[in-house]
Structure formats: structure tokens, C-alpha cells
Amino acid sequence: MACNKCNSKKKCGCSDSPLETLQTFQCPPNVNCPQPQTCTEFIDARCIMFTAGILDILGDEVDIDVPEGASLEQAFQMMAISFVDPTCLEGPCFASFHIYPIFVTITTITVTWAPSSSALTYQVEYKEESSVTWIPLAAQLATAPTQAVISGLTTGTTYTIRVNSICEAGNCYSATITVTTK
Question: How many domains does the chain have?
């Protein structure tokens, strides 16, 4: 929502609703995280951080322990994992719960993710959003950086991406994200 109260005599920062323009804030390293625009109000799940706490979902049926410093987007991904396979947040195999793009071009997407404490290897999988067939990248050791480049993509196409954490006790998928090439 644009702020119409700004003028040259007043420092811009809207206070006409529960949302305010933030003058300074810390964002995770994510190319899609917006920078504050003068006199624009927004809430972005990637830029809201938890100090600590537990999310109670569906009453007391699902509790998600959100780590300190996690973004609201990370909490949403943890929630998605809990609905598909709650054991992937409880162990013995843990999913990577924070996957996001760090670089996007017309033919590549570079993603990174939070490491899983139990993964031996990771395998990034992707597909065109409308496809049912996942395309796996080569597996990489958990000791390597938690980052992968998906190349050979089509310009202006939306892709769905996930990370498979492969553990001694099995495997767990991250939540999926969608990213569009430029």
C-alpha cells in the first residue's frame, strides 16, 4: 500500500496501519528479498525473524519448535514438512527446512539450504512447475557447501525445487519452493 502522507518536510515512514515502513532491517541473503521502498508498506515472510518459540498449529496437534533467528519463511517450510512427514522434523532423519534461491539468471537457478544434522548426502531435485517428473542433480556429500546450481533451464519458466536429505536412517524431503528464471 503506498503512503500518501510523505512530503519533503517529513521523514518517510507510514504509520497509518499496523504495518510500517522499516528504515533499516536485516534480511537473509536472498535475491528475492525486497529492499524497503520509500513510503511503501509490506510484510515479507523472508524478512521477519523469530527470537524463539513454538508454533502451535491446529490447536495442540502440531507443535513446531522454531529456532532463534529463523525467518517466518523458514517456519512456513517447517510447517509444510510437518504436514507431509512429521518425522522429518523429529528424527532420526531430519529434513533441510530452509531452501531458497540466492542467484537467478535466464538459464540457471542457484539454491542454498540449511544443513540437516543427520544427512550424509543431499540431492537437489527440480521440475517445471506443471510437470510431474522430478529431475535429480548429482548427490553431494553433506560436508560440501549446502548449495547447488541448476543449469540448462528455459528463460521465463517457473520451476519447483526441493532438497532430499539422505541419512543413515532413510531420507527426508524439504518443503518445495518455486522460482522463475529471468
Answer: 1
